Amino acid sequence: MRGIAVAAIALTSVMSMAACAKDSGGTSNNAGSSGTAASGCKLADKPPAAAASSSTAGDGTKVDGSALKVGLAYDIGGRGDASFNDSAAAGLDKAKTDLGLKADAVKELTAAPNEAEDAKQTRLRQLATEGYNPIVAVGFAYAESLKVVAPQFPDVKFAIVDGAVDGATNVTPLVFAEEQGSFLVGVIAAYQSKACHVGFVGGVDIPLIQKFEAGYAQGAKAAAPDIKLEKKYLTPAGDFTGFQDPAKGQVVGQGQVEAGADVLYQAAGASGKGVFAAAKAGNAKAIGVDSDQYNQPTVAESKDVIVSSMLKRVDVAVFDFVKAVAKNDLASLPKVFDLKVDGVGYATSGGKIDADLAAVLEGYKAQIIAGKITVSDKPSS
Questions:
Q1: Which of 192, 234, 265, 288 is in the most buried spot, having the most CB atoms within 10 Å?
Q2: Contact indicator for 231, 12 with CB cutoff of 8 Å
């Protein structure tokens, strides 16, 4: 929106519901909420206000990338998934505009669900053979293929989103602190929930998506210690159709709404469209992922229930990588795209996050950046 090990979190059975019911009328800690949520949970004390900070925008130096031929190998879903791949596509589009990439010097190819490994190798090899350089592999699923293909084309600069290839000096990892951004939308969920009961829907039960779950749960509990959480993954590790099954996403989302959750956060690729549909049908709220999904045309019918999105700035990483190649300065890229470099964050489109809640979020953000809060990338047991 991806190293594989499975860890689960069984939050539904260990969270107390009593405090949620008892505090349904609100408490003195409710000041600073968006007005719709604090009645549901007893909220923790607000974090200290964030100090004003100056912008760390780019250096503004004009970079000419018109001589580049750029290839993108998308994960399943490709351009138009309203999530992870679309964010990568946005970075490519920005490179076209800002760096002067020529329209005929860009090629985009897309993976098929559960395709054979040699299909990924063929896709990468095709781009390299046709002279595309740099090439961005969008998704950790390309890691094994890059181990084979990258050494065959030592002069081609590859990048992989959400992965790394040990020993391949011509492969740049573009990785993110998804758990940090997810912490912040967990806070949003706690403030938006009237039932003090929220849900998480993951596409595939793998360590990458568990990072979203872990941060979300930690943020929600930091804001409202008694909050109840539902969680479910659409498919187990190894079955990547969970990222492209809106119907299953809707069924799981509906189940969480029926269980009492009134804010659903999805990290499920194109399957998230179904989670949004379930939230809308059940009069619940939803939180998107990767892109600002409130503004995504492919989920426009559900935009009224989307209160925020966890921004995973794949667009920034893709653009910065292409720009760094054009400048011949790959060393300038951050090791991790985290809150400190605005590599993750939260969206405010739709007007559901008022100034008071924004101040709370910025307070938590400042504490994470300062190291006063450490966000786990693994769900608690």
A1: 265
A2: yes
